[in-house]
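Reopening this one. Same input as before:
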Amino acid sequence: MAYRRLEKVSSWRRLAVGMWGPPSSPTAQGMREVDLTKTIPFMQKVSEKTGQKITVTHMFVAAMGRVLAAYPEYNVILRRNVPYQRDTCDVFVQVAIKGADGRADLSGIKIERADTMTVEEIAAKIAARAQKVRAGRDKDIEKAKGGVARIPPMVLRPTIKALTSLSYDFNLDLSFLGIKKDPFGAAMITNVGGFGIPHALVPLLPTSRIGILFCLGMIHDRPHVIDGKVEVRPTLILTGSMDHRVLDGFQIGNITVMLDRIVANPEEHDLTQAFQ
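Same output, byte for byte:
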């Protein structure tokens, strides 16, 4: 069989090859169905009221921030295998951004203090960052991409591992390389539903020190048993990948139950100022 080396490889794909080796992971994974019967009308009302398009991604970011605020002991980072509690509830959102050539690359943004932000504020911040990255005007992203492109593939993995250790374990300032301190926060949200994928179990990002990662699948109709009767309701399959070194099953249960409760019943929680 003949092989031909790819000439055009996205910066994300280069990073992925440099970060991961053979499977050796403490990742615990699972899934849960989230009933969006009340969520979809809520998103539509907020979108109409604010003029800012609200999606399930924004809903889950806001909800995740509130979960971290409710359970501060889960908002931790491992430094030299010792857990430290973060001071703020920050949530990272992965975003697929198409460039001028039509190719898509994976980027993202950390929503700082997500527990205090409304869904419309989160939506506006993500949209502004995506536009900036798409136009090539995000200095940190461009600096990081340029740095990755210059690292030979043979030493990419040990280089990334060393930079991760210097940044997290030794708390060094690597901003001159486009690497901010704790750039990802405590939890990550990604969405594959827009690609037509019903659900996906996704890997934890080794360079992030994130212990909580949720993936949102495609919204589709599924049967639910309500008061003994079967009803068809709009549903999202939520999958999670957790670092078992910092979270056990009891804690994971608390996180997913509260996340489901907030997103499925948004009117009962302080997620917007649109109706004030």
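So the earlier flakiness isn't reproducible anymore. For the record, The first strand starts at residue 27 and ends at 35.
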